[in-house]
């Protein structure tokens, strides 16, 4: 007999089959993700080189990390790439979604075209845009062949703007997904709201800014988390387009971790860098969890 409390079954026994089925996933998360994370943080305080060893050096690895110009360049690049990706992907994605929401002809075709780049791997996207931005046969050469001999557009070969060349490829691949998420949010808005706004004479842009966008808050928060998680772990695009060059101008944290752990054979330094990346993810996840679950708790 199922235990009850005041005539109701204990919550522990509700959906028991589903809870049993989730046990492997929970164990995997605890052992691999939580255990692996704890292991990484633990050895980031050691002087591990080729193999992990419990030779503690305190915060020496972190001090060395933040004194390394290569890491500082990587963090700066990630900040530039992250801010620009957040702003432009949200703006372009929402604009495309708003246009698609107008019940245009061939909507399915356009939606497929915009979403198709997301189906490609970052390596493929990086190689494609490496060719497109190559000054010898890419955009620069095409424009020069049209008569503008002095035209220059070689972001991947200019250390000052190389991160923006990588940004172009990232936006091309990811904006289609953002568009689809935004479109799903727009399609969830009750049509009566639009009718009421038109009856009241509210301009379309004000309807979007002051009515529609606030109502899309859950979609926007989820989209921000997806974008932020992709920003932190950006690696493939950089490797495919520039390999971190020119010099170290396009270095990013994920590539720094890879280089120190597998090429320089300095596990302690790689663990310290990956722990800092983990901290950046926590900074993103904790506010999102507070906004989502805290709001639900306050509103019952």
TrEMBL record:
It comes from Aminobacter aminovorans. One of its GO terms (cellular component) is plasma membrane. InterPro entries: ABC_transporter_permease, MetI-like, MetI-like_sf. This is Glucose/mannose transport system permease protein. The keyword Cell division does not apply. It is a multi-pass membrane protein. PANTHER family: ABC TRANSPORTER PERMEASE PROTEIN (PTHR30193). Keywords: Cell membrane, Membrane, Transmembrane, Transmembrane helix, Transport. The chain crosses the membrane at residues 20-42, 78-100, 112-132, 161-186, 207-232, 271-291. It is found in: Cell membrane. GO terms for biological process: transmembrane transport. Its main location: membrane. The keyword Chaperone does not apply. Residues 75-290 form the ABC transmembrane type-1 domain. Belongs to the binding-protein-dependent transport system permease family. It comes from the Bacteria. Pfam families: BPD_transp_1. PROSITE patterns: ABC_TM1.
């Amino acid at each position: 007999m199922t235990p009850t409390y005041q005539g109701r079954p204990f919550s522990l026994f509700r959906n028991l089959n589903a809870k049993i089925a989730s046990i492997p996933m929970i164990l995997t998360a605890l052992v691999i993700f939580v255990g692996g994370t704890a292991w990484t943080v633990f050895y980031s305080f050691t002087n591990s080189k080729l193999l992990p060893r419990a030779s503690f050096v305190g915060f020496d690895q972190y001090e060395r990390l933040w004194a390394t110009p290569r890491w500082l360049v990587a963090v700066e690049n990630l900040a530039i790439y992250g801010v620009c990706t957040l702003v432009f992907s949200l703006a372009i994605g929402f604009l495309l979604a708003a246009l698609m929401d107008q019940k245009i002809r061939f909507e399915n075709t356009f939606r497929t075209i915009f979403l198709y780049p997301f189906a490609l791997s970052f390596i493929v996207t990086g190689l494609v845009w490496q060719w497109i931005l190559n000054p010898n046969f890419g955009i620069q050469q095409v424009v020069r062949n049209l008569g503008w001999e002095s035209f220059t557009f070689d972001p991947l070969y200019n250390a000052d703007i190389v991160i923006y060349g990588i940004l172009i490829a990232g936006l091309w691949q990811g904006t289609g997904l953002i568009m689809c998420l935004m479109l799903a949010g727009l399609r969830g808005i009750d049509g009566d709201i639009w009718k009421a706004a038109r009856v009241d004479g509210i301009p379309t842009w004000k309807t979007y800014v002051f009515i529609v966008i606030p109502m899309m808050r859950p979609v926007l928060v989820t989209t921000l988390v997806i974008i932020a998680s992709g920003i932190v772990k950006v690696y493939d695009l950089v490797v495919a387009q520039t390999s971190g060059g020119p010099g170290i101008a396009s270095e990013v944290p994920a590539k720094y971790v890879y280089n120190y752990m597998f090429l320089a054979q300095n596990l302690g330094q790689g663990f310290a860098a990956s722990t800092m990346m983990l901290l950046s993810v926590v900074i993103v996840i904790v506010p999102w969890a507070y906004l989502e679950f805290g709001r639900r708790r306050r509103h019952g």
